[in-house]
Every structure is written in structure tokens, then in C-alpha cells.
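INTERNAL TRANSFER SHEET
From: sequence group
To: structure group
Subject: MFS transporter

Please process the attached sequence and return the structure record in the designated field. Keep the field labels unchanged so the import script can parse them.
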Amino acid sequence: MLAAIVASSLGFIDGSILAIAVPAIRGDLGASLPQAQWISNAYALTLSALILTGGAAGDRFGLRRTFIAGIVFFVAMSLVCAAAPNAPFLIVARGLQGIGAAFMIPGSLAIIAKAYPKAERGRAIGIWAASSALTTALGPILGGFVLSTFGGDIWRAIFAVNLPLGMLAIILLLRVPNDKPSRPRRLDLTGVVLATIAFGGLAYGLSAAGAGEDGGTAALVLLSIMAGVAALVVFLIWEMRQQEPMVKLSLFRNRAFSGANVATFFLYFALSGVLFYLPMLLIAGWGMDEATTGFVFLPLSVAIAIFSGPVGRWADAIGPRLPITAGSLMVGAAFAGLAVATGAEVHRFWQLVFPLMVLMGLGMALVVSPLSTAVMTSVEDEDTGAASGINNAVSRIAGLIAVAALGSLAAYRYQSITGGGEGMPGFGEPSGGLPPSLEAARMAASDAAFSLLAWTVAALCLFAAATAWATQTDRRGKEKKQNPASPKL
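Return from structure group:
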């Protein structure tokens, strides 16, 4: 249990603190907005493409052995990130770090499943989830405090701290009895390559679309997106022809399973976009210190830690339809509130932004457990592992695409207001002492850009709510069904 909590916290803390540190990294390395997007997306891309393979590797080579290997590689690449001399180097290192995470993250939950009998497994997973959520909440607060106290150059310590945490996790794992591989499984490396090209091409094209002169030509953007779409089509055809596919596409014939994953994509697209760009707005746009900005992440983690258990039991009693729908609407309302506040240029963190993040956290707490319930109960028992892996990958791909697409949207809006003149910093870039008139224009443009972003994700939350209401069932609906097969698309 302790090893799983420490190891999973490595990945969760690393991602949440990074959002706080992005302005400092941009200032120190001179990174443009597209480069800042790829400091996040390089990690998300390799993690998304490899996470299902990471789970299969645990079955093939042994869970503990694969888990330790993932932690070692993740920590080693974290140290490489800490030593990055420039933005392109850091982007490559982050991509390699994501490879380690893909073999580390699935093991944190799977090792609990193997260590505890079924009668105790639910309680054990609940302890793991709550502990991981709380450590994730503390990460940005402590990271923000360190950045505020010691200055922007200390951002390298965010990656270096993974060394002692990783060593602790490995020491704990070495005391866990070694497990034998459950069954030989073929690793779908061709599928991994195709998925990486597909999602990488889409993410690159979407992020370059709003990069202006730094992002290449429109032809390059179009070519990248077309290559991504073509690779995605080939990937789907390849997976349909495999005996042991990385993604079991037949599961999507189930309406409830497909609906849950569509809702997951919309919600995590919205959540990932806001949690990446809101700290950038607060620090680089409003001039807030990192210590205060770190509290942005607190309501989400605390709400999930406190309410996931009760909400899960509620979803078991009435079905996932109502909790997912209500939670999605609450999240959408929170993001719409952020859009109104930033659009009106009201810079009140504790009076407006933080309460809205509390509302968002409560909404996500209503969603997380019922979404998992909807995914797990919509498939047969032998497919629960594949279903869980797909849903996990969907949420991460949503974050990858969100950071790319929403950054382009915000940059386009920002440039349309500022004109992109010489001496004007880009969206989310530290201002560096502009004249008062330009500083006022920059701040107004930053607010307008984030407001458009927030309105966009608020609309997507409405789509998630509508999808959940249309595809999920309540308890009465389940009881009335005579055919054990779920409705088909």
C-alpha cells in the first residue's frame, strides 16, 4: 500500500506542480507558448500511447519487476529534466519521463489488487485513492511556496525531488514478495507507434495552429493534422485485426461504455485545459505569487478524497446517470463563472476564483466514482481490465488534445487584441516590466483569452452532461432490463 501511494504520487505531483512552475520555466529557458505546451504534452503523449502496453508488460514480465523498472526510468528522466539547458531539451526529457510513467502508473493500482483479497480490495483501493488525492493536493501548495520563497530558478528542484521519493518507493517494493507473470501477453508495439504518431500529429498541429510566426506555416499545420488523422485510421484498422489488441474496440459497441468514455473525454478535456492555463493566467497575467496559486488545485483533490466513497455508494444505489449528469453541470457552471469573472477583468482570487474551484471540485467528486462504475458495470467481468485501461487512456488523451487546442484558441484571441506587436509578450508569458499602457493592454488581453477558453470548456461540460443522461441508466432501468446484453449502438 505504501509503495503504491508513494509511486502514484510521483506522477500526480509532477504534473500538478508543473502547471505552477510553467511561468518560471518560460522565464528561465525563454520558452514560447508552443514550447510550454509541449513541456506538458510530450509527457502526456508518451504516457497516453504506452499506458496500456505498460499494464500488459506487468502481466508478461511480472508486476513488481515492471513497476520497479518504471520507477527507475521515471526518476532517471526526472533528473535529466532538472538539468535541462533549454526548452527543446526539456521537451525531449519530458517525453522520456512519460515512458517511465506509463510502466509505473498501472502498477500502482494493480499491485494493490494482487496484494489484497477481493473482500478487502475495495477498501484498500479507497485508501490508495484518498491518499494519492491528498498528496496531489499538497504538491502544488508546497511547490508554489518553494517557488515564491526561493525564486523561479528553483523550478529544477520540482523534478529533482522525485529522486528521494522514487528511492523510497523502490525500497518498499523490494520488501514486497515477487510475483510470477500471470500469463504471456504479446506487446502491441506496432499499435504503440501508430498511436504515438496519431496523437502526436494531432497535438502538434493543434498547438502550432495558434503559434503565429513561431508555429510554422498553415500548410505544416494542415499536414500534421492530416498525418495524425491518417495514422489514427490505420491504428484502428490494425487494432481490429489483432488477436490481443492494445485497445479492444468491440467494447465500444456497448452504448453505456461508449457514453461513459465520451463524457470522460469532454470532462477531462475541460479540466486539463483549465488546470494548465489558469495558473498561467494567475501568475503571468495577474502577477499572483506561486504560493497562492498553488491553492487552485486544493479543492479538487480534497473533494475527491472526501466524497468519492459516499458518491460511489450513492451511484451503486441509484445508478451512475444522475451523479455524472449533475456533476458535469456543476463543473460547467464553475467554468462559466470563471469565464464571466475573467471576461469582466475582476481579479479576485479568494472571493471569486477559489470558490468557483470549490464548486468545480464538488462537481468532479460527483463524477469520478460514477464514471468508473459506469465503465466497469457496462462490460463483462473478463473485460474490466481492458475497459479500465481504455478509460484511463481516454482521460489522458483528452488532456493532451486540450492543452494543444485550447492554447491555440487562447493565443489567437490574445494576439487579436494585442496585435502581437514588438515588445509585447505572448499569452502566459511574464511581462518583464512593460510600460503602464502596454501592461494594461496585456492584462486585458490575457483575461479575454482565458475567458474564451473557459466558455469553450463550459460548453463541453454541457455536452458531457447530455451524453451521460442519454447513454447511462438509473437503478430502475437496470432492474427492468431482461436481456443481460447492454444496448448496442
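Handover comment: The domain at 1-187 is CATH 1.20.1250.20 (Growth Hormone; Chain: A;). The radius of gyration is 22 Å.
Transfer complete.
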